[in-house]
Every structure is written in C-alpha cells, then in structure tokens.
Design goal:
By secondary structure, the protein is α/β, with parallel strands linked by helices. The chain has a domain of 162 residues: 3-Layer(aba) Sandwich (Rossmann fold). Helix content is 36%, strand content 24%. The longest helix is centred in the C-terminal third of the chain and has 16 residues. The radius of gyration is 18 Å and the shape is globular. The N and C termini lie far apart (48 Å).
Amino acid sequence: MVSQVVAAATLVDAHALVKRFGGIHAVDDISLTIQPGELVGLIGPNGSGKTTLINLMSGALVPDGGTISVGGVVMNGKAAHVFAGHGVARTFQIPRLFRRMTVLENLLAPALTRKPAHGHGTIALRAAEVLTFLRLSHLAHGEARALSGGQQKLLELGRAMMLEPRVLLLDEPFAGVHPKLLGDLVERIAELSRRGYTIVLVDHNLDAVRGVVRRLVVMARGRQIADGVPDEVLRNPDVIDAYTGA
C-alpha cells in the first residue's frame, strides 16, 4: 500500500514572503502555514504569483524578504535538492520527465538518487506499488515520451511520490489533461489525501479544485486575498472582483 507518515508539527511556514522581479512584486508579503494532512487549493488569476510562491516553497527561488520554514527549519537560501531532502516534492506545469527512459525508470531515478541506501530491490517494489496506484502498470516498460498529456501528469505525480515526501506541491496538474483522464487524476490526488499526504494544489480548473480541496487560498496581484472553506471563499466579493476584473 502506498502510504505516508506525517509529522505532528507545522510542515510549511511561509512568513511575510516577498519576491520581486525588477519593479514587479510577484509575491508581496504573503504568510501561509500548511499543517500535516491538509489538502490546500491555491488559486488566482493569471499573473497572481501562484507559481512564484510554489517556487519559493520548493527552493527554486530565493525570497527577497520573509522566511520559509519546513518542519521548523528555516530554509531561506537553500537549494531545491535541500528542500527535497527535507521532504518537499513538487511537480511542474509542464512535466519534466526523462522522455527517452521508460515509465518505470522515471520512477526509479528520483528514489535511487535521494535514497540510495534503500537498495534497488526495495525501491523497485515501491515503484511497482506506485504504478499500480496510478494505474500505469501496463505502460511500465514503454518510453515516457509515448504517454498522453494526462499520463505524463500522472507519472510526474508518481515521481514525486517516490521521494516519500512530507508535503506535495502540485503546480497545475490538471492543465492540458483530457477530460477522460482528469477524473482519474483528481481521484488519485483525493486518495493520496485520504492516506495522509499533505498537498498544496495550484490550478485554474476551479471545478476540479473545489471538488477535492478542503481549504482554498486565493492570490491576486501577488497578495493573498482570501483563505478558508472553498464555497465561502468563492463567494468572497474580493475573489469575484479579482477574477472578473471589476
């Protein structure tokens, strides 16, 4: 069974984060805490700073102000692989797979790199479990480049799972996914949440997001404008204004 052991303390604590690109404040004084077992949706109009925030939370970018902590450890200035070592795994808007490697090899690579002491046999067994969970076992020995867009998103989710993360940051996992696979991807994420994974989900598909998350955070122009129960947040006048341009 694919499982996850979570810690009791706050997993991610972003405090007063700031990220500037020239004169643009992509992230402007954002504070956000993620607790173990939460499934949090992060939404907002294009250019609101969602991906920049995910990049700060995963070590892809260094904040210009504020602090980012993982499991109580301040991570400012740490490289992405150090974040991964502290249990932060993320996916990307455009899957970054090893396209000429097989589906199975794509799963083995991150785990063998991060946890070589586990041994190839143990890691291969886990990869088989993940493939079964993602319903990709029948494609294990095919090249990743032959997968459909939705299957690539599933495989990238599996690669993140192979790191046995404390928190999963999913950046637009539903983008470009065929409707036939979208429901399966949503259900896999929901099942991970039921099994105790801590997840932050960024996407523009509001129907899919609101159907799976229990907490919704909204950004606009680099700032946080709402945080709460999805149905209440989506009725918030500031959120409606942000999306309609009123």
